[in-house]
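Hey, can you fold this one?
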Amino acid sequence: SSVEYISKEQALDKFSNENKDDPVIADALDEIGENPLLSSLTIKAKDQKKYDQLVSYLENNFGEDLNNINYGKNKDVIERLGRIVVSVRKIGISLGSVFITIAILITFNAIRLSLYVRKREFDVMRLVGASNLYIKAPTIFEGMFYGFFASILAIIAIAGTAYSGLPLIRGLISRDDVIQFYLSNFLIIGGSILVVGLLVGIVSSMIAIRKYLKA
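Sure. Predicted structure:
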């Protein structure tokens, strides 16, 4: 969980920036002549199910000091957003699995084709006494390159899919929160795909070249 204190001045600055293009609100603030907003606490729970417990705790222990808790007004939106987040994660995992599979197929077939073309080169290297490690090393690096390239393609595909899903939650939370949500999940998924791609490239190249070294 996290707690952020927002002073009256910060609240007014944020409110003014969000409504800077609305002359009615600007005139109203000028007419009042003072800051009508109150300081507040923004409390975020890691688990959506904990919000009810947090509200009960605050009301029971600090009820006299609190002017208002707006969780009740936003409860339906938070629950709906929670369901959307779960769905997005499931879709992300499914798409990630599909794209990883595609990356594996691209990597493995690219390596097999490269080894087939270079089979004569391997035979010559073995005739002149080159060690297996000397023969394997360039192929392993090549496999890593193919794995990296396939991972980048998969990451771009997932990023495009994620971007197309932005309108689903843009109306529920602020634009900054939407961007932060996707960036956080994108880095995790993208990093995982990149690592998997490199490992697939290494393993695929070692498996594929073993056939040619035994031939």
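The two ends are 60 Å apart (CA to CA). Let me know if you want another pass with a different chain boundary.
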